[in-house]
Automatic annotation (TrEMBL):
This is HAD-IC family P-type ATPase. The keyword Nucleus does not apply. The chain crosses the membrane at residues 53-72, 78-95, 227-246, 258-283, 612-637, 643-664, 676-698, 710-730, 737-758, 770-790. Gene3D superfamilies: Calcium-transporting ATPase, cytoplasmic domain N, Calcium-transporting ATPase, cytoplasmic transduction domain A, Calcium-transporting ATPase, transmembrane domain, HAD superfamily/HAD-like. Keywords: Membrane, Translocase, Transmembrane, Transmembrane helix. Its main location: membrane. It comes from Streptomyces aureoversilis. It holds the Pfam family E1-E2_ATPase. It is a multi-pass membrane protein. It is found in: Cell membrane. Residues 1-21 are annotated as: Disordered. Residues 112-206 form the P-type ATPase A domain.
């Protein structure tokens, strides 16, 4: 026997379109009418290999390596093999990151609901075909172009395409553009353009693409490399003239020493190490079910000093429970008992095919009554903050009912608001059920409503939210709770979680409109209620205008505009498809507690790359200065390529790899280039001056055959000890493994000095005792100068 309520509904509503049949779908697939736009979360394997191999500095090092292969010996070409190994490591790590990202993207990909053979089914976006009937509900993104087939209060936001923030009410026959998303109501549309023909078809791809650009770290490193490139050419010309023509070396020897002067200027490992650090960060976060859609987001979140949190879905879990139902005095009508109100609430719940969390709690608490009919419905909208329906009872009585925010539906002087405030102060969410005197499509439908009852909802707090808020407080990151709910209720929830400033909640309707005034108000308070979607966007902009780096978290369609404008957008995996499309970071496990891991990963990357960049650029500075000093003094260049390869490996390459992946909780600071160069320049000057002084002293000390080899060995010892001291400074604060790392690098150099075949391989042999001890004394003096310079820089140029 059929359900009477269902029968009544079917009499008033046309049968839904059944969609395409299986043969019709197969026919379109055969014709290629499929939505085949590739939505990628990472670069292709070919792009990864090309990006790591075909670099400006690999080209320079490759040419120098080929030159060494011609003039020999092979040990002077070791730097070429190091580049190959480093590049291979970079490719492998990024391929691992790609695998992680691609697997997470598949997990997090939303599947539109398409009608096939009369039944709705969720399919991947790439399987939609021309003429498919696609269902829409709040938060759904329109993935292809189409035309509205069914509409029930359907409102679509096209701001991502047109820049116009106001949602557009869609009726049957109206066009739908890919990239727009539903903010209220529901319906269905027919796909008219799929694949690359769709308007803004690349939007989703661009929004979720894995990138390695637009990062202060990478921009700063690129700027440094540009300056190094400019310095290399004149230095190379000066060295070749100095070593070949002036010193009258054999041309092979002149070329070897010229290459030795040029190779250490290139901080080639720095670019690689940055990519590897980011890639490993992606893998680590991937294990925690965190999808990083844009790689620099790891860095960006580490720089954030204000995080804006949407209460629902972030501090609270998505579900709610009805805890109380209060009938209000003065309710109109003869049937005002609780049983009747429960039936009204049940009918309202049944009238909305896509209920939000609040309405779902009401549906769970109050079953739909038999033989009640809904003749018209108004879906919930975060902008107006209420929903409604025109209902008819089995005995013929009809009425228009609204369900929404009490402070929006009632006049400010209404007596019921006092009771609402009391409930809100306990952290409870309250909805007002009211009877309207006007039709639902009347713009002034809320005027003169007659309150009937208060539905009290209890929100489920996330168990980990309090710990996460405490973490942000400890890290000096200001948390701002921005919600569409009542300010007092939001403040009570935030207070339960221990948020500082939660006791002074602000009603956003009273915030000043001016950006500067709004920014000042936002800095003063921590909790804001009754915030509209446009206001969320304005609040993010106001905070940014005051110099803040802002992260925005959210899961609802009302968060999309703010997520898009924030420096870093963070979406919950269970959130709407629109929020996931515009967010840089998606928490697939829906756990707000994952955010500290992302912040920590970003700080690890930035802090450690800043550390190791100082090592690489100190080498660049002393290499340039040594080359200039050699040309000015008209002496042979003191090193062969093998010497500097050994020094770079022991004092930069190996330790930098470990330091770049170590834990680091230091807060990220801006001005990367300035912060690195303020240490690298004085350290490089001291290293170059001390090494060249030891070299000149050795030239006066040694004479006869083999003198140049002895001079080179003394200079190499001096430079190694100074570089090791720079490493010891960079490795602070010390832990057992950092001390072990520095000692291991020193032991490695000692092994070379005492092993005969390694002495021969690297052309290193200390002659006598006077000059080697003099080299140690010079290095010790330079180490003292480095300590003084480090302290002076901290005082004179604070970070």
């Amino acid at each position: 026997m059929s359900d009477p309520a269902q029968t009544a509904t079917e009499e008033h509503l046309p049968a839904p379109h059944p969609g395409l049949s299986a043969p019709e779908v197969a026919e379109r697939v055969a014709r290629g009418e499929v939505n085949d736009v590739p939505v990628r979360s990472s670069r292709s394997t070919t792009e990864i290999v090309r990006a790591n191999v075909l670099t400006r500095f690999n080209a320079i090092i490759g040419v120098l390596f080929l030159i060494i292969l011609v003039v020999g010996p092979i040990q002077d070409g070791l730097f070429g093999f190091v580049i190959v190994a480093n590049t291979a490591i970079g490719i492998i790590q990024e391929l691992r990151a790609k695998k992680t990202l691609d697997s997470l993207a598949v997990i997090g990909e939303a599947k539109p609901t398409v009608r096939r053979d009369g039944a709705p089914c969720a399919i991947p976006t790439g399987e939609i075909v021309l003429d498919d009937v696609i269902e829409l509900g709040p938060g759904d993104k329109c993935v292809v172009d189409g035309r509205v087939l069914e509409a029930d209060g359907l409102e679509i936001d096209e701001s991502l395409l047109t820049g116009e923030a106001d949602p557009v009410l869609k009726r049957t026959g109206d066009p739908v553009m890919s990239g727009s998303f539903v903010v209220a109501g529901g319906g269905a549309f027919t796909a008219t353009k799929v694949g690359r023909e769709a308007y803004a078809a690349q939007l989703a791809e661009e929004a979720s693409r894995f990138t390695l650009v637009h990062s202060e770290l990478r921009t700063g490193i690129s700027r440094i490399l540009k300056y190094v490139t400019w310095m290399m050419i004149p230095t190379a010309v000066g060295l070749i003239i100095s070593q070949w023509i002036v010193q009258d070396h054999d041309w092979r020897e002149a070329v070897r020493r010229m290459v030795a002067g040029i190779v250490p200027m290139v901080p080639e490992g720095l670019v690689l190490l940055t990519s590897v650090a980011f890639a490993i960060g992606v893998i680590r976060l991937g294990r925690k079910q965190c999808l990083v859609q844009e790689l620099p987001a790891i860095e960006g979140l580490a720089r954030v000093d204000v995080v804006c949190l949407d209460k629902t879905g972030t501090l609270t879990e998505g579900g709610m429970d009805v805890s109380e139902l209060h009938l209000l005095d003065g309710a109109v009508g003869e049937k005002t008992d609780e049983a009747y109100v429960r039936q009204v609430l049940g009918a309202l719940g049944e009238a909305d095919p896509r209920p939000n969390a609040s309405l779902q709690a009401i549906i769970d608490a109050y079953p739909a009554p038999a033989r009640w009919r809904c003749t018209e419905s108004l879906p919930f909208s975060s902008a107006r903050k209420y929903s409604g329906a025109a209902l008819s009872t089995p005995d013929g009585e009809s009425g228009t009912w609204l369900l929404g925010a009490p402070d929006v539906l009632l006049a400010p002087e209404a007596t019921a608001l006092a009771q609402v405030e009391e409930l809100n102060a306990r952290g409870l969410r309250v909805l007002l059920l009211a009877r309207a005197a006007r039709e639902l499509d009347d713009p002034r439908v809320t005027d003169g409503v007659r309150p009937t009852g208060l539905v009290v909802l209890e929100q489920r707090l996330r168990p980990d939210a309090g710990d996460t808020l405490r973490y942000f407080a400890e890290q000096n990151v200001s948390a701002k709770v921005i919600s569409g709910d009542n300010a007092v209720s939001v403040g009570a929830v935030a207070a339960k979680l221990g948020l500082t400033g939660a006791k002074g909640p602000v009603d956003a309707r009273r915030l000043p409109a001016g950006r500067e005034e709004m920014g000042a108000a936002l800095d003063r308070s921590a909790v804001f209620g009754r915030v509209t979607p446009q206001q969320k966007r304005d609040m993010v902009g106001a905070l940014q205008a005051r110099g803040h780096t802002v992260a925005m978290t959210g899961d609802g369609v009302n968060d999309v505009l703010a997520l898009k404008d924030a420096d870093i957008g963070v979406s919950m995996g269970s959130g709407s498809e629109a929020t996931r499309a515009v967010a840089q970071i998606v928490l697939l496990n829906n756990s707000f507690a994952t955010l500290p891991s992302v912040v920590a990963e970003g700080r690890r990357v930035i802090g450690n790359i800043t550390r190791v960049a100082t090592l690489f650029l100190t080498k660049t500075v002393y290499s340039v200065l040594l080359a200039i000093l050699v040309v000015c003094w008209q002496v042979p260049y003191p090193f062969l390529p093998r010497h500097l390869t050994l020094l770079s490996t022991l004092t930069i390459g190996v330790p930098a790899f470990f330091l770049a992946l170590a834990p680091n909780k230091e807060r990220a600071k801006p001005h990367f280039v300035r912060r690195v160069m303020r240490y690298a320049i004085p350290a490089g000057i001291i290293a170059a001056a001390a090494t060249f002084a030891a070299y000149l002293l050795a030239r006066h000390h040694y004479a006869g055959p083999g003198a140049l080899d002895a001079e080179t060995s003394a200079a190499t010892l001096t430079l190694f000890l100074i570089s090791l001291w720079v490493l010891a400074i960079i490795a602070r604060p010390y832990t057992w493994w950092r001390i072990g790392l520095v000692l291991a690098m020193g032991a490695g150099f000692l092994v070379v000095l005492v092993t005969p075949w390694l002495q021969h391989f690297f052309a290193l042999k200390l002659v006598g005792t006077t000059m080697p001890w003099a080299a140690v004394a010079i290095a010790a003096t330079a180490a003292g100068a480095l300590e003084l310079a480090w302290r002076w820089v901290d005082r004179r140029f604070p970070a």
